[in-house]
Amino acid sequence: MRYLLSGFVGSMLLAPVSVAAQEDPLELEPSSDWQLEYAPDACFLVRTFGREGSDIILRISKKRFGPMAQLTLGSEALVPDVGEVALLYLPGEQSVPLDGVAPVESRNLNGVVISGVPFGEEVGLERPDRMQFANVFGQKLTLHTGNLRPAINAMDTCMEDLYREWGVDPVVQLSLSRFARRENPEEIFRAVLQAYPMAMVRRGVEGDVNMTVVVGPDGRVAHCTGDGPPQYPQFLEAACKEMTEHARYEPALDAEGNPVATLDTMTTVYRLGNTQRR
Q1: 176-196: pLDDT as tens digits
Q2: Are 219 and 274 in contact (CB under 8 A)?
Q3: For labeling, which of 53, 71, 94, 130 is most exposed (least CB within 10 Å)?
């Protein structure tokens, strides 16, 4: 499902410029409203900035309830020149620690994926209205987002809806006294590894699977979802089947020590002759 968050859309859009030739930050106003998208296991906020033909796409995603998010910053027209990527929330020049940065290269979008970005309550309290990125497209880039509070609230509501749909109380997750622990991690790994679909092996197809599972109070997997190669759903189906059948957990405990439902994630990197998990 997709929803529009109405808000200010700047009428002054910058004309196309040569990014490498500019020393001052490239200032871009929004050219669309925020779009909120519900996926089976995640929530996404998407907005474009700048003039069509040289616009920047900002995509914010969450798979867990809490303050951390993943950002994708990309463009169809501008050529990335990635260095030591930095992010500031403005005003106040609030520096943002980043967990990791990876390049994005596709036929329609080039840029970076930035993981571990604070995008929650503590950010909203600072009332940021701009995000400034350095060393992605060769110079500083400032996106005039406007007040981020409505976007943060919409993302939190989306995540709360997903958790409740899965039977997980999002409020309880903020005060767990113990997270769920895998009791048989090696058995899980072997089972998921051996689930490499034989049809994919014969065709020489590889793929990455990101699973999100609901761990019930009994320590069993109650639900499994995630994403994998969209053209090859066999990867996710096989991995989730094995995860549901074989995974055993010490359940999460709430603040009073009672077993409660929670989430766990696992990534399997299927490579012929070299399969990995995280």
Answers
A1: 999 999 999 999 999 998 899
A2: no
A3: 53
Query: Backbone phi, then psi, for 67, in 5-degree steps?
Result: -85, -15
- On whether the CB atoms of residues 140 and 25 are closer than 8 A, the answer is yes
For 93, left (φ over 0), alpha (ψ -120 to 50), or beta? left
Q: Tell me, what DSSP letter sits at residue 137?
A: B
Q: Is the peptide bond before 150 cis (omega within 30 degrees of 0)?
A: no
- Does pLDDT of 73 surpass 50? yes
Q: Which two tokens stand for residue 19?
A: 């990014």
Measured CA to CA, the distance from residue 249 to residue 3 in angstroms comes to 36
- Alpha-helical (H) ranges within 115-178 are 121-124, 149-165, 170-173
**Rg of the chain's alpha carbons, rounded to an integer?**
21
Cα end-to-end span (Å), the chain: 29
Kindly list the strands in the beta sheet with 141-143, ordered across the sheet, starting from the edge strand earlier in the chain: 26-28, 141-143, 130-134, 86-90, 94-95
- Determine contact, residues 30/61, Cβ cutoff 8 Å: no
Mean pLDDT within 88-93: 82
CA dihedral angle for residue 122, residue 151, residue 149, residue 254, rounded to 10 degrees: -40
70-105: buried (b, 16+ CB within 10 Å) or exposed (e) per residue?
bbbbbbbebebebeeebbbbbeeeeebebeebeeee
Cβ atoms of 228 and 236 within 8 Å: the answer is yes
Query: Which tens digit of pLDDT belongs to each residue from 107-132?
Result: 678 888 888 888 876 555 457 889 99
Question: What is the C-alpha separation between 58 and 10, in angstroms, rounded?
Answer: 16
Query: How far, in Å, CA of 271 to CA of 19, rounded?
Result: 38
